[in-house]
């Protein structure tokens, strides 16, 4: 029973990272119906850069601030150079998929060039791996607890922002009908760019949290995580914050149970098999909804 509870608690923590990534993907999906598949490289660059700066005695607040600023700038670049040109072509162009992946691969290559391809230890930010609390007789890492708390706070705050602020209402208006929102005087272009900036900031935060759990980071860090975040988003229903949280935690628990009782090598395979099954039964995910398009 203790082993089962340990796997579940670990799954909730890892799943919280997936949920945070899925929420970041949702932000660009709301405003442009596109996804930034280069999110994994942003996670890697932020985590690698943070580890590099702290190793060279840069203070934690400064290192985190630099990571967030760089990630925000990358978000602007992604929207301006990879997504907007593809959307302007119209005709249902999917060029943004290749463009965002290409930019991500470029960032990954540059990081390998300047930081090296060897894994480096990620510094402990708030708690060490030895710090824990006991839940039902099971030791639960405080690092894991912080990941869960931050994810819940971010997703709840985002949902409250979207529902109860003027800017949040503007984002929802752009999501429903960008052209009508533009006619109403809403700065659609600014909101679209802001959504990519916020998406990149969430990716940076998810990267720091995931690296803290894993303890190391290398130039390939983040690619698998963004795929699993995408799976979590689809399971819950793309465009739904509640769906991102549900999908992430459910996926985290399932993968950890599979890894604990069957094989760690089967974790990702089971995740994608689950994705195919859910899409066959629920094409819009658990919390997704059908979209109505006016002719």
- Uncertain stretches: none
Strand residues, percent: under 5%
| Main beta sheet strand tally, sense and closure | 2 strands, antiparallel
Q: What Rg, in angstroms, do the CA atoms define?
A: 19 Å
Which oligomeric state applies? single chain
Q: How many alpha or pi helices?
A: 11
What features would you describe in this structure?
By secondary structure, this protein is mainly alpha-helical. It has a domain at 16-219. 73% of the residues lie in helices and 4% in strands. It has 11 helices and 4 strands; from the N terminus they run ααααβββααααβααα. It has helices at residues 2-32, 39-55, 60-89, 95-115, 142-164, 166-176, 178-183, 188-214, 223-236, 241-261, 267-281; strands at 120-121, 132-135, 138-141, 216-217. The strands form 2 sheets. A two-stranded antiparallel ribbon has the order 1-4. The chain starts with a helix and ends in a 14-residue tail after the last helix. The model has no long low-confidence stretch (mean pLDDT 87).
């Amino acid at each position: 029973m203790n082993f089962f509870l340990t796997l579940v608690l670990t799954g909730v923590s890892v799943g919280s990272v997936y949920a945070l990534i899925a929420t970041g993907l949702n932000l660009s999906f709301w405003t442009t119906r596109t996804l930034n598949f280069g999110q994994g490289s942003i996670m890697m660059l932020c985590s690698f850069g943070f580890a590099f700066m702290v190793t060279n005695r840069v203070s934690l607040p400064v290192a985190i601030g630099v990571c967030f600023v760089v990630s925000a700038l990358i978000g602007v670049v992604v929207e301006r150079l990879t997504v907007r040109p593809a959307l302007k072509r119209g005709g249902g162009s999917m060029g943004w998929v290749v463009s965002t992946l290409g930019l991500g691969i470029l960032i990954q290559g540059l990081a390998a060039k300047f930081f090296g391809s060897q894994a480096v230890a990620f510094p402990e930010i708030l708690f060490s791996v030895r710090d824990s609390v006991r839940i039902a007789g099971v030791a639960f890492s405080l690092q894991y607890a912080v990941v869960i708390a931050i994810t819940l706070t971010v997703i709840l705050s985002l949902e409250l922002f979207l529902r109860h602020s003027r800017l949040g209402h503007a984002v929802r208006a752009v999501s429903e009908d960008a052209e009508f929102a533009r006619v109403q005087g809403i700065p659609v272009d600014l909101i679209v760019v802001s959504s990519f900036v916020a998406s990149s900031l969430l990716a940076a935060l998810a990267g720091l949290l995931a690296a803290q759990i894993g303890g190391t980071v290398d130039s390939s860090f983040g690619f698998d995580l963004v795929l699993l975040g995408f799976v979590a988003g689809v399971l819950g229903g793309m465009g739904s914050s509640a769906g991102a949280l549900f999908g992430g935690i459910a996926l985290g628990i399932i993968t950890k149970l599979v890894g604990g009782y069957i094989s760690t090598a089967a974790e990702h395979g089971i995740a994608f098999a689950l994705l195919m099954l859910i899409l066959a039964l629920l094409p819009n995910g658990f919390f997704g909804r059908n979209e109505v398009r006016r002719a």
